[in-house]
Amino acid sequence: MKKAVFCCICLLLLTGCWDRTELKQLGIVMGVAIDKDPDSGEFIVSTQMLRPGAISTQMPSSEKPVEKAVTTGKTIFEAIRNSNLEFDRKGFYAHTKVIVIGETLAKEGLLPVLDFFQRGKEVRGYVFVCIAKNTPASEILGIETGGIESIPAFRIRDMIEDTKFHLKGTQINLLNFYKESIGSGIEPVVGVLKIEKDKFSKKHVKLSGGAVFNKDKLVGYLNEHQTIGYRWCKSEVQSGAVSLPSPVNENRYESVEVKKADTSIKPTVKGKEISFTINVKAEGIITEQEVTTSLEDNTKRLEHMKKTEEKMNKQIEKDIKLAIEKAQKEFHADIFGFGRALNKEEPKVWNAVKEDWNDRFAEVPYTVNVHFKIKSTGLMRGPSQAKN
Description:
It comes from Neobacillus cucumis. The chain is built from twelve helices and 13 strands. The protein is an alpha/beta fold. The longest helix is centred in the C-terminal third of the chain and has 34 residues, at 298-331.
């Protein structure tokens, strides 16, 4: 009797997962593009789904590695579910790499657009968010040329991650966008994707500049130089190449690679006046020189390094001021975190000014101090010279 009861219990416990979804029934979504239909006002959602058989290493296929489903709906969720009316896979979003938003939607506000992804928790917080400039977001996601990676969403993700090697573009993920748009004392800047053509008229996607938001609404763009200044000011510089006129010959250039950088923003309160000091400390190496003047002498080499440091100091300061001027005069948006710095150092003062901070930020005085150090001129003592 005991054995019979035991067997019955085991049968009950060993039942299968009746509500599971088989892997072959899922469409693994790599990227999402969201636009707005100007006529109906409905969302247009383009999902880029992986075709596993096309990327198999054991059985190579000539098929495209992804399939794109385009659907519409009054909400993002409705549009996504509508894909099941014409597509044979249910979207699985846990591996999504990038969400691209059209300009029109971004100007209206992103929080309602991104609510589904944040609320449902199926999309992870580190997925990148980008703005499609001067083109539909769906077209950005559909460009299949311009890199080695065959999956467009992967290629865009890699481009965004590579901002650690250069200064002319920026990035933000879903979680940080929420933190900066909902929080106080800082406004978000989002990566910008646009379509360009090469000399053969072949289209490719370019990551360039930054999209400035006031809360969750797009208010304008930073160009590449302003983006460089923004990243210096926000202490988001890991590496990058800077080209400068040579101290020896202004018509020739040399390249400096940034190796280390750190920026701090220090508020000063005197009565009712609030000001800020931006301190940048960085170092790098000279990686390239077009001039052929010999630097064999230690004194000359040190003098050359000092002049290059001075040029770097001036260039970084110039880029930072360009970014701050744009943010203050045109956008009235504190994208650098001056308010956060004030809240950290002077919380009582911050509580008194936070309600109209962006208006105050537009007039706040600031000082920029840059200290850049050249650590090396490379392995050679000076540029190569042809011998007579």
